[in-house]
């Protein structure tokens, strides 16, 4: 599926109820992926963003609605941080039905990659559930000094790794926050923990695949989390 398919589907009147979406998202995928569920969905969100790039923040909001993610609103922003709020009937229903297991890593990864594409700077995101208001807040951390359009792949990998380590030092690790009351329960998922678990030492860029990587801000992007990994051990 690509951006052309996206436009064609939007022109149809075919609709899917919320049960179908939740069955795949919170039923099948969570059981299939188990503990890897949030990490893989964060990567998947980034991959979707690469397939369906947007030009403006309004386009990002529109995609969230069309994809059934919910209603996205920007709350605050500065040179390094953006805070977003996600709400809507489906968001409220997912939070209510799945209690402590509701996960929005897919949306976090999508939002981070869209902002990375638009700004040309490395960006990562975390999410936090607010059960009192039945909504989700996203914090996107970016660093305009860590650009993703440098020419050297090793420099790109080093830049992202340095950014993740710096972000990891300032963002709280994933945890369930002790609430003051039963109505004020929140969960924060730190994506940087899973990203830092990747081993860059075994990452090799094949010469014949250099021209097949995604483009970003008019330049070729090489994402270290999306580069084929080759092992020296022979297959048995």
Automatic annotation (TrEMBL):
Classification via Gene3D superfamilies: Trafficking protein particle complex subunit 3
Residue segments, region Disordered: 216-236
Transmembrane segments: none
Leader sequence segment: none
Domain of life according to the entry: Bacteria
Protein name: DUF2507 domain-containing protein
Natural source organism: Leuconostoc fallax
